[in-house]
Amino acid sequence: xxxxxxxxxxxxxxxxxxxxxxxxxxxxxxxxxxxxxxxxxxxxxxxxxxxxxxxxxxxxxxxxxxxxxxxxxxxxxxxxxxxxxxxxxxxxxxxxxxxxxxxxxxxxxxxxxxxxxxxxxxxxxxxxxxxxxxxxxxxxxxxxxxxxxxxxxxxxxxxxxxxxxxxxxxxxxxxxxxxxxxxxxxxxxxxxxxxxxxxxxxxxxxxxxxxxxxxxxxxxxxxxxxxxxxxxxxxxxxxxxxxxxxxxxxxxxxxxxxxxxxxxxxxxxxxxxxxxxxxxxxxxxxxxxxxxxxxxxx
Length: 298
Fold this sequence. Notes:
The chain has helices at residues 15-32, 37-46, 62-72, 109-112, 114-119, 127-133, 150-163, 188-196, 203-213, 220-230, 237-242, 263-269, 274-284, 288-296; strands spanning 48-49, 52-53, 86-89, 175-178. The protein is mainly α.
């Protein structure tokens, strides 16, 4: 396959984007060619749970861990580019994760109903299992870690109402769609084009943080913390999971907001902790857009 040569500011091929596009092809094959030898080998090595290949923890190779980042939409060099561009078309939902996949509405249910996701017993349950157990009122699908409060019961009622719009087609398999090109599906060329259509890296941002990190008037422990933060080396729950220290379902923010605990979430988006860090940033006169660039890798 010939690929048009793309260059950056220094007339160098954009290898990072090209490598990500190649890894994305493997992610695509995980859901579109589950009977292939490649998928079966990975299943034998890393295991399957809820119809999904498992990350493997410390046993996973560097190559596999990078692929999992892209597939699951966290820690990737260019954010959620893969997750944001794939959709599931209705089928029997035998391979669709109820909370984690984007299968009803525009966002995963874990995002739309963060509180319920945090309280649900089996976060890797698939849609077909939930349907079989009964997700309507009085059904056995809803299994919680504790008894729900009245306002949480209202959220369940709202979720059940949303699920009334869903019809499972038992005779058809789930079909994945690549949004940028629904007809051709995922191609390395198309993914590379999607990745390189974004704004280029801001070189001034990196110079700004290089200067910030090595100031002599800043205490050493503060410099070390900042260095670990900007290089995504803090022990967030996502990083602990990536290192095989905690389980997949334990990645949620300690603030109880039902979102994966990443650098970006803790310091920019968390309703519990981000407000505190906003005060710190205001005190230090740190520019919010530069700060966000450093945490997201943009």
